[in-house]
Amino acid sequence: MVGLEHYLLLSAVLFSIGLYGVLAKRNAIAILLCIEIMLNAVNIALVGFSRYITPTELTGQVFALFIIVVAAAETAIGLAIIITIYRSRGSIDATKIDLMKW
C-alpha cells in the first residue's frame, strides 16, 4: 500500500533534482525546466497531504491547480524574457546575463 511517506519521498527527490538543476545549470531554458520540476514536487506533496490528512476536502488539489496556473504564466513570461535576451545578446548563458549592471 502506498502511504504518505512514499509521496513525500518522491516529492523530496524531485525537488532535490530541480534544486540541483537550478544551481548547477547555466542554460536559462534548463533553469526554467528545473523550476517546473520543483513546482511539480510541491504539487505532489500538497496532494499527498490532502489525501491522507483531510481526504474529504480538496484543498490540496485546489492549491495544486493554482500552482499549475502560476507555473504556466511563469513559463510564458520566462520564455519571452529569454527570447528577448537571446535576440539582443546572442546567448542564453545565465552567467552572461548582466542586464541590471551599470
General description of the model:
The relative contact order is 0.14. The protein has three helices and no strands. It has helices spanning 4-24, 28-53, 59-89. It has one domain: Helix Hairpins. The protein is 76% helix and 0% strand. The chain starts with a helix and ends in a 13-residue tail after the last helix. With 102 residues, it is mainly α. It is elongated. Helix 2 packs antiparallel against helix 3 (59-89).
Quick structural summary:
This protein is mainly alpha-helical and 102 residues long. It has one domain (4-96): Helix Hairpins. The protein is built from 3 helices and no strands.
Break the fold down into its secondary structure elements and pairings:
Layout: H1 4-24, H2 28-53, H3 59-89
Helix pairs in contact: 1-2, 2-3
Note the main attributes of this structure.
102 residues; Helix Hairpins; mainly alpha
What percentage of amino acids are in beta strands? Answer: under 5%
Order of helices and strands: HHH
Would you identify the CATH architecture? Orthogonal Bundle
Helix content: over 70%
Radius of gyration: 17 Å
What's the CATH topology label?
Answer: Helix Hairpins
CATH class membership:
Mainly Alpha
Number of domains: 1
Low-confidence stretches: none
Termini separation (Å)? 58 Å
What is the arithmetic mean of pLDDT? 92
In total, the number of strands is 0
Q: Determine the structural class based on helices, strands and strand pairing.
A: mainly alpha
Shape verdict? elongated
Largest sheet: none
Give the helix tally: 3
